[in-house]
TrEMBL record:
Region (Disordered): 606-662
Compositionally biased tracts (Polar residues): 616-630
UniProt-recorded name of the protein: Transposase
Organism expressing this protein natively: Ramlibacter monticola
Length: 662
């Protein structure tokens, strides 16, 4: 690509990136330097499908790029030199008369009684078959190929050895040598998209799914007690091992879309170890249920081990580039877009997804598979009878962990954890370890560029602004030589109180900390971006940066009863805060503690006193007939309110809850 073509390509690419970022169309046209009609024409070329199954993308912006194979439009004439013949005549013959091409392919694939295999067909037999097909098409003696001395004998033989064998070699090898030889040919001589064989824990698959169940969020009101707000439908991401079908992680995203940070947190938990679910459901886990990296007898084999490849769901294709950039240099593996498989091609994963869907379709408030699903009308309920969002997230997480201790057809009806233990003890799990220097969660991110600022006349020492927050450190305060210099920041997306600062050459500078209220509570990148969005729309009031947590929390609590998305966001904020004990804001801490008390009452009410051991834990071994005959308590009278205490919320479904159908 020449300098002028490169400038044109970069100009058009910048314009389309601005268009994808929802910038005004006039600014995009100004950057592109083209008219309105030409801009949409180029956009259509970028969105056209490529033969590899993906869109053309920015490949279509290169000068001279062809979306379809070249096709000759001019007529074929004889060359001036008698030895030249008719250049391109045979290709045009097959294009104008498709029946001739189909007849030749059927002859070489032995689909006719007189057919021959490519390795047995002679040049004379192929030439005679071509002449027969041409006469059937009504070609005269003055038309090609009858008006040549060779009658296209050389051309059809060359076509068989180049074009035909390249297109049908796989079918020929399958007929001659069997299915195993065809698979070997497809992988060794294919286009790089063949499916290789991966060992245990060597290839991971990330799928996106929609939780077909309505959830609720309980809100503490000073005047009305507990309010119930319906949340929007949640999106979930699940990760599995391609070889053993073991569940490596499963979580619900309490927002409208999945981000790169969510994917990186899922991968990081599968490498470092995951946290227990927020909702403490009684009797939720089978004995030994866990993700592989946390399982007994597997943690020392799998901790800090990285896969060779990660297959990403095509529903997450818009995040593939950033996800690949963040993991390629760190893990050394390759992020691939998963094929649009048929269900039978990865039966173990589709079976697990089907079981999760069946679980969600039994819950109160399920939406079913669509508006016409009869279970949707049967399970309809008012918001106060719906399942809490935290309980729903805990149920999904518990479901995935239980799948790892249940027999699976993909591993000869062993449990996935037992299969991995046996393979690990035999030494079959040979994975690369994450380097010791990279065993930090802040490496699982996209590096961000920041500029160091200072103003000694106003007493402002060196600092930088990163996502609406100011960062400083004792080491940075004395580095006045870094003024107006750019550096790189790495961070852990689940906690932005502390980030790592790097020089432009990649050498580490050290840790820097957020100042002000941002240092007082753990918060994620999602919360920081939510704060910036609400502040931009002037929804948080004046000086919201002095009280970020209170401003966002109070705003979401006020609008959650009318906005389903706000209710889901409020559930995610409380989930973020409940994972930490260091909440220093009294009012929010009081609401969180009240919520924990209510959940403890629900858990205690769902488990009769007789089913508990002397230490207070729940016993799963007592399955006597007397306990089976014990009546199910009324959900509205499980916990008796004390004087002066608000009425507790409805109970969440537990072990005593029965499915709606089947």
């Amino acid at each position: 690509m020449g300098p002028s073509d490169r400038k044109r390509y970069e100009r058009l690419r910048a314009a389309f990136e601005a268009y994808a970022a929802w910038q005004p169309l006039q600014e995009c046209l100004k950057k592109a330097g083209v008219s309105y009609a030409r801009f949409h024409q180029l956009l259509g070329r970028c969105l056209a499908m490529h033969r590899d199954g993906r869109i053309q993308g920015f490949r279509a912006l290169k000068r001279g790029a062809h979306l379809r194979p070249k096709r000759r439009q001019a007529g074929v004439t004889a060359a001036k030199d008698p030895r030249g013949g008719f250049s391109g005549a045979f290709g045009q013959l097959l294009e104008l008369h498709s029946a001739i091409k189909e007849g030749l392919e059927a002859f070489l694939l032995a689909k006719k009684p007189h057919g021959r295999r490519p390795n047995r067909a002679t040049r004379h037999e192929l030439k005679k078959e071509l002449e027969r097909l041409c006469r059937l098409e009504g070609l005269t003696e003055r038309e090609y190929p009858f008006n040549t001395g060779d009658k296209a004998g050389c051309a059809v033989w060359k076509w068989k050895n180049t074009t035909f064998l390249e297109e049908h070699a796989l079918d020929f090898i399958r007929v001659e040598n069997g299915e195993l030889a065809a698979n070997l040919w497809e992988f060794g001589e294919g286009d790089g998209e063949g499916k290789p064989f991966y060992g245990p824990m060597e290839a991971w698959v990330i799928d996106e799914y929609t939780a077909d169940a309505r959830g609720k969020k309980r809100i503490k009101s000073e005047s009305l007690g507990w309010l119930h707000a319906e949340a929007q439908r949640f999106t979930g991401i699940a990760m599995s091992d391609l070889n053993s079908s073991a569940s490596l992680g499963d979580r619900l995203i309490f927002d409208s879309a999945v981000t790169v940070s969510d994917l990186l947190e899922l991968v990081c938990d599968a490498i470092f170890g995951s946290q227990p679910p927020i909702a403490d459901l009684p009797n939720e886990l089978e004995p030994g249920a866990a993700f592989p990296v946390d399982a007994e007898g597997l943690s020392h084999y799998l901790r800090y081990k990285v896969p060779k490849a990660i297959y990403l769901d095509r529903a997450l294709a818009h995040l593939a580039n950033e996800f690949q950039f963040a993991l390629h240099a760190l893990l050394g593996g390759l992020v691939k877009l998963d094929f649009p498989y048929q269900p039978h091609s990865r039966a173990q994963i589709e079976q697990k997804n089907s079981a999760r869907t069946h679980l969600l379709h039994q819950l109160i408030g399920t939406t079913g598979t669509g508006p016409q699903d009869p279970v949707r009308k049967v399970a309809d309920a008012v918001p106060k009878d719906l399942i809490d969002a935290d309980v729903l997230a805990g149920a999904v997480s518990a479901f995935s962990r239980n799948q790892n201790v249940l027999p699976c057809e993909a591993v000869a009806y062993l449990t996935p954890l037992e299969y991995l233990r046996r393979r690990a003890q035999r030494g079959d799990i040979t994975l690369e370890s994450l380097p010791v220097d990279c065993r930090h969660r802040y490496f699982f991110c996209l590096p961000r560029r920041v500029t160091i600022r200072m103003d000694l006349t106003k007493g402002r020492r060196p600092h930088f602004i990163f996502e609406y927050a100011e960062y400083r450190s004792a080491a940075l305060n004395s580095r006045v030589d870094l003024d107006r210099r750019f550096m790189w920041v790495r961070y852990w997306g689940a906690d932005l109180r502390t980030v790592m600062l790097y020089y432009p050459d990649g050498s580490p500078f050290g840790e820097v900390h957020a100042v002000g209220r941002w240092q007082k509570f753990p918060h994620s990148m999602w919360f920081r971006l939510l704060f910036g969005k609400l502040k931009k729309h002037k929804a948080l009031g004046p000086r919201a940066e002095d009280r970020p947590l209170e401003a966002v929390y109070h705003y979401l609590r006020d609008v959650a009863t009318q906005d389903r998305r706000a209710a889901a966001q409020l559930a995610r904020v409380e989930q973020m805060l409940m994972a930490s004990d260091g909440i220093e804001f009294f009012e929010i801490r009081r609401d969180i503690e009240d919520l924990r008390v209510q959940e403890a009452r629900v858990a205690e009410a769902l488990n009769p006193v007789g089913d508990r051991t002397p230490d207070g834990s729940v016993s799963n071994d007592e399955t006597t007939a007397a306990s089976d005959q014990q009546p199910v308590p009324d959900a509205q009278n499980l916990a008796r309110p004390e004087p002066g205490v608000a009425t507790p919320p409805p109970t969440a479904p537990g072990a005593v809850w029965k499915p709606l159908r089947r």
